[in-house]
Amino acid sequence: MAHTNAPGSSTTTSSEFGPATGLSCRECGTVYDLGPIFACAECFGPLEVTYDFGDVRREDIESGPTNIWRYRSLLPVPPDVAAKPNLQPGWTKLVKADRLAAELGLRSLHIKDDSGNPTHSFKDRVVAIALEAARTFGFHTLSCSSTGNLAGAVGAAAARAGLDSCVFIPADLEAAKVTMASAYGGRLVGIQGTYDEVNRFCSELIGDELGEKWGFVNVNLRPYYAEGSKTLAYEIAEQLGWRLPDQIVIPVASGSQLTKVDKGFRELIRLGLVEDRPYRIFGAQAEGCSPVSRAYKAGHDVVQPVRPDTIAKSLAIGNPADGPYVLDIARRTGGAVEDVDDHEVVEAIRLLARTEGVFAETAGGVTVGVLRKLAREGRLDPDAETVVLNTGDGLKTLDAIAEQARPAAVIRPSLDAFRTAFAN
Amino acid sequence: MAHTNAPGSSTTTSSEFGPATGLSCRECGTVYDLGPIFACAECFGPLEVTYDFGDVRREDIESGPTNIWRYRSLLPVPPDVAAKPNLQPGWTKLVKADRLAAELGLRSLHIKDDSGNPTHSFKDRVVAIALEAARTFGFHTLSCSSTGNLAGAVGAAAARAGLDSCVFIPADLEAAKVTMASAYGGRLVGIQGTYDEVNRFCSELIGDELGEKWGFVNVNLRPYYAEGSKTLAYEIAEQLGWRLPDQIVIPVASGSQLTKVDKGFRELIRLGLVEDRPYRIFGAQAEGCSPVSRAYKAGHDVVQPVRPDTIAKSLAIGNPADGPYVLDIARRTGGAVEDVDDHEVVEAIRLLARTEGVFAETAGGVTVGVLRKLAREGRLDPDAETVVLNTGDGLKTLDAIAEQARPAAVIRPSLDAFRTAFAN
Question: Cβ contact (<8 Å) for A87 and B210?
Fold first, then answer.
């Protein structure tokens, strides 16, 4: 394997990226120095961070801060990262969901509720890692293409760190996400097109002098950014008492999150932090944007892009970069990739809120909807330890349920009016 | 002092309420057994929980869960409260706000950011305590009058606990709060009137057979409910390294939160958990609903009710029950009560988002706005340790900033279009 210096990348000391040792092509294995690069010069495959972890002990993690930096010895970040101005995401609740479990006929179910992050989605995790990389590489503008949640996470992280931001979104996003992302004072640009078109535009921009000094968290900082999702795996295992779940349902947009949860579980096993035992990973998509689910069901190894049409806009990536890896993992672990339609998404949002008091955005509705479908169809072991991810917040996708979630009545402030309204 | 059994209250064992020993009238000192009562039978004064804390040590608290139940030995809850189905609120971030501090000319500023709670407001704290009381008293319906945040907190808490809920709100609340509160599947009732009219209606309802079996968290469970705000004081002190801040700015709606933060600070001093040193408490109101601020400025001891007209709807209580106590505390501690207009509220929301990446609801805008006003006018010690509360989430009051928080441009996905839009 060649050890190639990426063009334009500055050499960095190892401490700036903690235990990370380099970047490696996921396709051909070519190794690169740590730098702001994301595609293999040999085969254009995606690059991934490699590590030399050394000895990592539970006690060291447990004595760390109650955010993702408790896992700094497993992430490409400097040892003093917890003291830097960032949003300190993570350590969100793992909610024991007995009432939902009872409705679904499952024995033990937990919800990993990432709506508790600073901007109320799991994106704060990945952006926090990309932010550190951006600082190290000397970028002064943080940028991204976004289906909405990332826009808010990048805007907020840049604001707190004192960086500029320039965020690109499809112009038809939910109003809540647009307003929130604008509130942080960075530059928000609406693009007439789908997320996939926004993403292609960002790749063009990065090759142009206009964007060459920018840190696009999910493009030229993507190898670092993606590692942030490993913290979901670490937290779930630690919160279960240093144990892997038997089965887990994860939403699939680009597919990156699912692949990194799997990577995180495998790292914990390799480091001896959890027992080595089998786990099954299930991917969840919305029917209106289900290229990975379709490929899974058809037995394909490649994913045919689609044009998204679903209320689950945060999952509306028609050409998911990590789709093939998701297929691999679902098949290797004995899981599956499944989808639900928009009606089922809304039902699942309401089911989760009614049973557990967790108000999820449409992506959470997709995941809980797929959980319900798998449980009903007998494809989950009802006695196994099950975890389902809620990656975002219902306040960002109110339109999805606004028609159904209304006051039971509007009355004058009198007992008579109350009696009349609720006579039966 | 008479030790009176409240009519209709069942006798409870002390362990069901942890260290709480009874209820005591804040006006005349009459003592009652713990029960679902809220007003003194002698003088109609408000009742407050009394305690026998015994020995409480920092280490015991520090080894507790990362939510308000770490302080269970200081709250009217059973020892096993952490294991019961509730939303486990609290232990929200104390954000070191260096960039905001620099803009305001302050040396050390922290934001206690309660938007990180499960339903994204401080109300989850108070509801969690009321929920335990409701369970102990055998209520099967959780109810409240609400300016919005409480509606969501009660709906979610009841859903998770498997109780029914019936929540009353002014019919003109922000759409986000209405939809969110409805999502949890309880009964939501819009009332044609102000919050104060909704509140009066609930008091009528509780005296009627319709509502006699209901636990109204902020009416017949109010003594328990209100204690939840003490946890803000405990967390701030612990997160500062077991130290009280020198000055703190707190929003004033009913005034209960401010009085309980003061109570919490005094308890910590009395228990020897923090050093006994002076602190100053400042109350913050919106000009359009500033009865306490007006009374403070006029040197009055009583608060003249007003009809609210402000975008800060969660603070729009025109007849604040704890107003006189707020005046006492502001004067006793050398603080003040101040107000800002709606324009300043919006400016403050944007200032906080731009400098720290914290997106506050209008109540947070009021508090940060008052902080800014006090700093500008030289009424805060710029060298003192300062804390400001953000009690809610910007996603719930998007309309307040939607006009100003928009994309910089909407363009086609091309470099030319980007160049044209941002030519200069």
Answer: no
pLDDT (tens digit per residue) in A64-120: 999 999 999 999 999 999 999 999 999 999 999 999 999 999 999 999 999 999 999
Hey, is the C-beta of B190 within 8 angstroms of any chain A C-beta? yes
Q: Is B194 on the interface with A (CB under 8 A)?
A: no
pLDDT more than 90, % of chain A: 89
Q: Choosing among A209, A410, A416, A420, which should be mutated to test the B contact, i.e. which has the most B CBs within 10 A?
A: A410
A241 Cβ under 8 Å from any chain B Cβ: no
Which of these, B154, B130, B140, lies nearest to B223 by C-alpha position? B130
pLDDT band at A423 (very low <50, low <70, confident <90, very high): confident
CA distance B333 to chain A (A): 32
CATH 3.40.50.1100 residue ranges of chain B are 94-119+229-402, 123-225
User: What's the CATH fold of domain A94-118+229-402?
Assistant: Rossmann fold (3.40.50)
Start-to-end Cα distance in chain A: 76
Contact flag A183-B394 (C-beta cutoff 8 Å): yes
A130: pLDDT strictly greater than 90: yes
Q: Provide the pLDDT confidence category of residue A6 given band limits of 50, 70 and 90.
A: very low
In CATH terms, is domain A123-225 a member of 3.40.50.1100?
A: yes
CA separation for the pair A83, A65 (Å, rounded): 10
Amino acid at A306: V
Q: Which residues of chain B have pLDDT under 70?
A: 1-14, 424
Nearest CA in chain B to A402: B179
> Residue B227's closest CA among B81, B96, B331?
B81
What value of ipTM does the predicted structure carry?
A: 0.94
Domain B94-119+229-402 is in which class?
alpha beta
> Which of B298, B308, B376, B366 shows the shortest CA–CA distance to B331?
B298
Q: Does B183 touch chain A (CB under 8 A)?
A: yes
Mean pLDDT for all residues in chain A: 94
Q: Which residues contact B100 (CB under 8 A, 6 or more apart)?
A: B109, B111, B351, B352, B355, B356, B368
